Amino acid sequence: MTAMTSGQSSLVETKPQPDIYTLLLIVAIIFLAVTVGMVMYNLMTTYGLTFAEMFTGREISPV
Questions:
Q1: Is residue 43 predicted with pLDDT exceeding 60?
Q2: N or C: where does the chain have the smaller number of CB atoms within 10 Å of the terminal CB?
């Protein structure tokens, strides 16, 4: 983005508003949470793991 200064012909670079960065951070956090949820659901349904078994380090056999 650029902005014209009054009375001068030079361009001044402006930064995006902080709201954009906040929105991008919120979108990234939501995307990460959905991805983790999908992976956990897949492990529970495909391999029959419980929530606690995902964190015990138990090896699972390939399907």
A1: yes
A2: C
Provide the domain count of the chain.
1
Q: For residue 4, is it within any domain? A: no
Banded model confidence at residue 59, pLDDT cuts 50, 70, 90? confident
- What pLDDT is stored for residue 9 in this prediction? 64
Q: Look up residue 13 and give its two tokens.
A: 């670079």
Asked if residue 3 belongs to a domain, the reply is no
Q: Is the dihedral of CA 29, 30, 33, 35 positive or negative?
A: negative
Q: State the residue for tokens 């995006």.
A: 16
Closest CA to 54 of 14, 39, 1: 39
